[in-house]
Amino acid sequence: MTKENNALVRVENLVKHFPITQGIVVQRQVGAVKAVDGLSFNIKQGETLGLVGESGCGKSTTGRAILQLHEPTSGHVYYKDEDLTIASASTLRKLRRDIQIIFQDPYASLNPRMTIGDIIGEPLEVHNIGTPKERRERVQELLHLVGLNPFFIKRYPHEFSGGQRQRIGVARALALNPEFIVCDEPISALDVSVQAQVVNLLEELQEKFNLTYLFIAHDLSMVRHISDRIAVMYLGKLVELADRAELFNNKMHPYTIALLSAVPIPDPIKERQRKRIILLGDVPSPANPPSGCRFHTRCPIAEELCKQEDPPFEEKQPGHWAACHFVKKAQEYME
Questions:
Q1: What is the SS3 assignment for 243?
Q2: How far apart are CA 253 and CA 269, in angstroms?
Q3: What gap in Å lies between CA 190 and CA 183, rounded to an integer?
């Protein structure tokens, strides 16, 4: 993917394989789980890029590899002009102020033995920012910012609901005034009634602080609501990337077409008329992915070429990328 001047984050051929080992005393590698296998995309300043796909396709691993929480097997991740994959530990430590993450599970990501004042203030302490009084004031300011009572700083995580805990996670991510935040399925563990509140909060914060998000999620309707562009992932690879409206109105990849056919439409007449695509079989193992196009084992329009050649991820139309040998055939299949 070509370099864009306004890209805050650039990912080039990112690969993350987890080794499979055997042996008790002497362990030897006998294979690898190909969680992320050659991703390339840009995230522009101030935008939200939605990343969707089935469970186990490598979405969370992608987010963590971008932040170097998982060391990539190969490839490059550029934040502005800094290559994070070869940056020194001291350089990465400084860049941690600008790149943060909101974790998926608000119950597991907060230390139950720490007060929320200590949890939110920990990044300030780690980076030696401000005096104890200034940190406490900053924590209270952050709590107010995410819609919580500033006087709750002495309470513990178990005293809060799931939605409130996720707001605490958002406050912690904002503590150092970052520019880029990976939102790793931040609403999937929450009640439906609370999900919209958290998403609205993220949108308000983005507008207020000009934040840039990589928003990882399963819920396509929520991704459509919050994202500027959407990337679709299948078994470690990107299969489609386009603007939100373009992706929903002119989908090109058979997997994207099948995925979006499962999204309910609030119009009963249109819902009855549209074609529903049910994919057969299970997702192959990332430890032993199929040859050629990884989707060909479940694709309703697959041909012999799909089994032999992996389609390149290329720009089919301006700003619309897809990895499919038979885009027109896929679109005709939907009609």
A1: strand
A2: 26
A3: 14
Q: What is the mean pLDDT of residues 16-23?
A: 92
Q: What is the pLDDT at residue 2?
A: 47
**How do 229-234 and 237-243 pair as beta strands?**
antiparallel
Query: What 3-state DSSP class applies to 151?
Result: helix
- How far, CA to CA in Å, does 292 sit from each of 259, 296, 309? 21, 8, 4
Q: Reduce the DSSP state of residue 112 to 3 states and report it.
A: coil
Express each pLDDT in 205-216 by its tens digit: 999 999 999 999
In angstroms, the Cα distances linking 250 to 43, 58, 166, 219, 313 are 21, 25, 35, 19, 17
Rounded to two decimals, what is the model's pTM? 0.91
Work out the end-to-end distance of the chain between its first and last CA atoms, rounded to an integer number of angstroms.
Answer: 30
DSSP structure string for 191-236: -HHHHHHHHHHHHHHHHHHT-EEEEEES-HHHHHHH-SEEEEEETT
Residues with Cβ within 8 Å of residue 101, at least 6 apart in sequence: 63, 64, 67, 69, 173, 181, 182, 183, 184
Q: Which long-range contacts (CB under 8 A, 24 or more apart) does 244-253 make?
A: 244/50, 246/317, 246/319, 246/320, 247/320, 248/224, 250/317, 250/320, 250/331, 251/331, 251/334, 252/316, 252/320, 252/322, 252/324, 252/327, 252/330, 252/331, 253/295, 253/322, 253/323, 253/324, 253/327, 253/330
For the chain, the maximum distance between any two Cα atoms, rounded to a whole number of angstroms, is: 67
Asked if 36 and 65 touch (Cβ cutoff 8 Å), the reply is yes
**What whole-number distance in Å separates Cα of residue 68 and Cα of residue 321?**
26
- Residue 153 neighbours by CB under 8 Å, 6+ apart: 115, 116, 117, 120, 136, 139, 140, 143
